[in-house]
Amino acid sequence: MQKMVTEYINNCELCQVAKYDRHPPKIKFSLTPTPKQPLEVLHMDTFQFSNTKFLTVIDSFSKYAQAYHLDPVCTAATVYENILIFVNHHGIPQSVTTDNGREFNNSLFTEFCKLHKIQLHFTTPCNSNSNSPIERLHSTLLELLRILKIKFPKLCPKELMQNAILAYNTSIHSVTKQRPFDLINGRLDVLDPFDLSDEIIVSQFIDDRRERLKFIYNNIHQATDAHKKNIIEKRNKTREDPSKFPQGSKAYVKDKTASGSKLKPRFTKTEVKKDLGTKVWTINKRKGLVHKSQIQKPKAFSSFPQDHESGNQEGSYSHSIPSTSRDNQSQQ
């Protein structure tokens, strides 16, 4: 009887759609490749404060960042023009990571990336972890902007952002132990290559400089990679491997619009077309790519003690009782 009640509750479609998920999945983080030199990987996003919008860009290796003021009526063409300004100043990157916003996910920008052989990666909706470098930049910029606003209350948002970016790029970063400005420009010393004594040959100076750059870039790559591994190992201690969703199985996806209404269903039922590891491709009502952190974990049954009347042995069911059934049974 207990198994039947548990099975009925866990398969109640109305409960899955309407109830809160008391134990949402906490999926383990994956280690992403670490760039080996500046401008290999860029992260982009839009940032807004005081009703003023900016395009923000950060280089994953050097942590060098820029912010470009956007018009109040921001269009994909406006964002694209500012991206071109960054590329014209600093060069073509190997890959770019952005969210799925229309500012980036449009034919204008995607065709530009194809033309210049730039790998374009869009993060999964409602999952900002893939674009974490730009999210951390936004957090740092907010701190700097608050300080500058108190110290210089008469400055407009555009001027505040310019000063915040300057302060960020000229400060020593906690991971690289270098200033972003120095790494992006290869500025390792203040020696002028044209102000050399007769004993120093220019070609030798350039070769030595190149070797020093390689040495520093390699050290920063190793330090950044070790830093990422250390953080991921610590955070994954309290996380779990993603659940598996066979093709054709049901999935209940969190409805991000439900937060604005207390009576709106919390989840939307959909069907899994393909399991992609940490993501699934769904069809029907919620069509597209969904991160598994936005999907309810599949419900399971429990191991029960021996049933003397039916003769069932303990452990005949291999999974754990979900909290929903225990709570309901304790109230009855």
From TrEMBL:
**Which species?**
Acanthoscelides obtectus
Task: Please name the PROSITE patterns in this protein's record.
Answer: INTEGRASE
Q: Which Pfam families match?
A: rve (PF00665)
Name of the protein in question: Integrase catalytic domain-containing protein
Question: Where is the region Disordered?
Answer: 235-260, 291-332
> From what superkingdom does this record's organism come?
Eukaryota
Q: Where is the composition biased (Polar residues)?
A: 312-332
Q: What GO molecular functions are on record for this protein?
A: nucleic acid binding
In what residue span(s) does the Integrase catalytic domain sit?
Answer: 34-188
One BP annotation, GO: DNA integration
InterPro entries the record matches: Integrase_cat-core, Retrovirus_Pol_polyprotein, RNaseH-like_sf, RNaseH_sf
Looking at the UniProt entry, the stretches that span the membrane are: none
